[in-house]
Amino acid sequence: MTKKTFQTLQDLAACVGQEVAVSDWITITQEQVNQFADATGDHQWIHIDVERAKAGPFGGPIAHGFLTLSLLPKLYEVAFEVVESRMGVNYGLNRVRFMTPVPVGGRVRGRMKLLGSEPIPNDGLQMTWETTIELEGSPKPACVAESVVRRYR
């Protein structure tokens, strides 16, 4: 995919109601899953015990749902940029659903639709995004999240 570039936050805000960008595919590795388990303390066997997971309900280890969700900033970063924006922060989530488990070795990408945009103090913009995290080869997405992000000029 080609990374989209917007000059200003206002240029991005003009895209409300549209799919703004699609990220490149990202491969989920066992190392990422293990590191996420260590960082969060979630060491459930379906994530980190490869041999046991092979005999489990998913046929192998799967990524944590929250690991999949935590990819949102990376997916945004690789999909688009705003030249005249110095930083962005996660402000919250309105709704999140995990529809399909992501197997280790699976590839995911994000489709970002800008649902809303409003100015905020300090020369910023609060944006509400619907991001669909697709799992390569799956008819259903891995995750659909409505996230709220604040960006500043």
3D structure, described in words:
The structure is a single chain. With 153 residues, the chain is an alpha+beta fold. Helix content is 25%, strand content 39%. Strands 2, 3, 5, 6, 7 and 8 form a six-stranded antiparallel sheet that branches. The chain has a two-stranded parallel sheet with strand order 1-4.
SSE layout and pairings?
Layout: E1 4-6, H1 9-13, E2 19-22, E3 26-27, H2 30-40, H3 45-48, H4 50-54, H5 65-70, H6 72-79, E4 80-82, E5 87-98, E6 107-120, E7 124-135, E8 143-152
Parallel strand pairs: 1-4
Antiparallel strand pairs: 2-6, 3-6, 5-8, 6-7, 7-8
Strand content: 35-45%
Low-pLDDT stretches are none
Major beta sheet summary: 6 strands, antiparallel
Number of DSSP E strands: 8
Radius of gyration: 17 Å
Based on Cα principal axes, name the global outline. Answer: elongated
List SSEs in N-to-C order. EHEEHHHHHEEEEE
The total count of helices amounts to: 6
User: Structural class per helix/strand content?
Assistant: alpha+beta
The average pLDDT is: 96
Q: In angstroms, what separates the terminal alpha carbons?
A: 26 Å
Helical amount: 25-40%
Name some characteristics of this structure.
elongated, single chain, alpha+beta, two-stranded parallel sheet, 6-stranded antiparallel beta sheet, 153 residues
Brief rundown of the structure:
With 153 residues, this protein is of the alpha+beta class.
